[in-house]
Amino acid sequence: MSTTEQLRVAPLTGADDLATASGLYRDVFGYTKPEATLNPRLLMAMAANGGSMVGAWDGDRLVAFGYGFTGHAGGETYFYSQAVVVADGLQGSGVGRRIKGEQRRLALSNGLHHMRWAYNPILSRNAHFNLSVLGAVGRWFVPDCYGDGESRLVVDWDLDADTPAPVPAPWASYSAAEWGRVDRGEGAAAVALPSERSRVTPEVVARMDDAFSGLFADGLVARSCVRQDADTAVYVFTGSDA
């Protein structure tokens, strides 16, 4: 296995590579239903019409893949990253960051200065990467985003920012009994969640959904997610202009 730095990361356009990417997408997420799979023909059409497909190869083996397209909403134009998938055993190795970096390069080369994407906010590792590592800001909370009963947090990443803004830290420690509940501070709020997906329960998800809905309704945005200890990770929210 090559090191992360040795992987070849580049745009992905060929029909064979896109078919392989579709297979990787199914394998990583465990999707079997037709509505959840990724059509290689759709990827080819996107690649030929302004979409962006990025792959990472270890030799001849495709080990990661990201794709997206230009979006326009609310008078703003941006790059929307629909998904980044990394082969089993490589999550957390930095491959995803390289894919995101190539997406950023391509977006900027096309005159786009912001990137958006959605993720399940109960996944604290993803939240840490998106908010605390890359420096994206969670600006929109969408319950039942894809009609599957699961909520998504939509983040916005300023592609012109060379380094992330300072990450706000939690001001208290939290127990498992407080997972999903809001702790309000002065002009800020914290929400603790399980640090591991295996500890997530429907009750915690329901409390988180209520907490996030209320915080976004109050005009706050998600700024960071940091691991408190082996059991708990903590989101920090501040005002949108903080």
Care to describe what's here?
- The chain is α+β, with helices and mostly antiparallel strands and 242 residues long.
- The chain has 2 domains: 4-112, 3-Layer(aba) Sandwich (Aminopeptidase), CATH 3.40.630; 176-239.
- It is built from 5 helices and 11 strands; from the N terminus they run E-H-H-E-E-E-H-E-H-E-E-E-E-H-E-E.
- It has helices spanning 15-29, 40-48, 95-109, 124-133, 202-217; strands spanning 8-11, 52-58, 61-73, 76-86, 114-119, 137-142, 152-158, 182-185, 188-194, 220-227, 232-239.
- Helix 1 packs across helix 2.
- The chain starts with 7 loop residues before the first strand and ends with a strand.
Topology:
Blueprint: E1 8-11, H1 15-29, H2 40-48, E2 52-58, E3 61-73, E4 76-86, H3 95-109, E5 114-119, H4 124-133, E6 137-142, E7 152-158, E8 182-185, E9 188-194, H5 202-217, E10 220-227, E11 232-239
Helix pairs in contact: 1-2
Features:
seven-stranded mixed beta sheet; single chain; 2 domains; Aminopeptidase; 27% helix; 5 helices; alpha+beta
CATH topology of the largest domain: Aminopeptidase
**Tell me, what is the CATH class of the largest domain?**
Alpha Beta
What is the strand tally? 11
Query: What structural class do helix, strand and pairing data support?
Result: alpha+beta
The termini sit apart by 43 Å
Shape: globular
Lateral arrangement of strands in the main beta sheet: 1-2-3-4-5-7-6
Supply the CATH architecture of the largest domain.
3-Layer(aba) Sandwich
Mean pLDDT: 91
Residue windows where pLDDT falls under 50 for at least 5 positions = none
Radius of gyration: 18 Å
Count of DSSP helices?
5
**Order of helices and strands, N to C?**
EHHEEEHEHEEEEHEE
